[in-house]
Design goal:
Blueprint (H helix, E strand, L loop, with lengths): L1 E2 H8 L3 H9 L7 E2 L6 E3 L1 H15 L4 H9 L4 H38 L8 E2 L3 E5 L2 E11 L3 H15 L2 E2 L4 E8 L4 E11 L7 E4 L2 E9 L6 H13 L9 E6 L24 E7 L3
Antiparallel strand pairs: 1-3, 2-3, 4-11, 5-11, 6-9, 6-10, 7-9, 8-9, 8-12, 11-13, 12-13
Length: 282
């Protein structure tokens, strides 16, 4: 057995820390001399202390570490806790990578006197089952800066037909000339309608590949590119055109009077949340 001093040197952990672990019941000494009160540790305690230090370095709390150390017999619970921490650290890794990327971009923009425009935050790509959705449609070839006017026209149509809005606005860019900033845009708004009409369409049910993009609308192309790459990686085939669903952005989530709808200019563009999605071929 090793004295606490020798044990401290072997493990490169301060004596004060080892005593604290002992006092809170996290690392019990192998033997305590009843006369002197000296604490002694055997070889097995070295591995136990190393495990504690590794988990602490991975940002487990001492309470969590105690539950893991004392719950070794429950392998299923232990594996679940470790998997949760892996996911948490992977998320932190993504955040740090994004921060590094933004700092590099700021540095480059300063060096090249370019305008800094941080990249959007992209979620992982995923598949979701979407139900058949009835929508009111409007489609025009417009200049991009006229998008607000097209949205206004759509809501005027909602008001004219007295439809009840039943979801978030969706857009399809059928064709776009980036040089001229001209696009063939179709807006689709889920509605409750009892009869079919000229402007009523249906977004079919089925499996859709999706990605969430947090950031300005001008940066949505990053989401399109990543989703297309993911489809190729997963050997999946898209059916139809890509769509954008405006979850949080300029369009208010609650529309009291469609005829007087106004953009939500209080929300910062970096906080816009848009889902890019496309139907998968069966």
């Amino acid at each position: 057995m090793y004295s606490i001093g020798k044990f401290s040197n072997l493990c490169n952990v301060p004596i004060k820390t080892i005593r604290y672990y002992s006092d809170i019941g996290l690392l019990e000494p192998s033997f305590i001399d009843q006369v002197t009160g000296y604490r002694y540790y055997d070889y097995d305690k070295i591995n136990e202390l190393k495990t504690i230090q590794v988990l602490k370095h991975c940002h487990f709390s001492l309470n969590e570490i105690e539950q893991i150390i004392k719950g070794k017999n429950d392998k299923q619970d232990l594996e679940m806790r470790l998997n949760e921490k892996i996911q948490e650290l992977e998320h932190q890794q993504e955040v740090i990578a994004e921060q590094i990327q933004n700092i590099v971009q700021v540095k480059n923009s300063i060096r090249n006197t370019e305008t800094f425009n941080p990249k959007p935050i992209l979620s992982s790509c995923y598949i979701e089952e979407r139900p058949k959705t009835q929508v009111l449609s409007i489609r025009e070839k417009i200049h991009i800066i006229e998008m607000d006017k097209l949205v206004q026209k759509l809501f005027e149509r909602i008001y004219a037909y007295q439809f009840e809005i039943d979801g978030e606005l969706v857009a399809i860019l059928h064709q776009q000339d980036r040089n001229q900033n001209i696009a063939d845009v179709e807006l689709l708004l889920p509605v409750k309608a009892t009869q079919q009409g000229e402007y009523i369409k249906v977004i079919p049910e089925g499996k859709y590949a999706c990605i969430n993009v947090k950031g300005p609308y001008s940066e949505l192309h990053f989401g399109y590119s990543r989703l297309q790459e993911w489809l190729t990686e997963q050997s999946l085939q898209a059916e139809g055109t890509f769509m954008e669903q405006y979850i949080k952005g300029l369009i208010p989530t609650e529309v009291v009077n469609p005829i007087n709808i106004k953009p939500n200019i209080e929300l910062h563009p970096n906080d816009f949340l848009t889902k890019v999605f496309v139907k998968l071929r069966n």
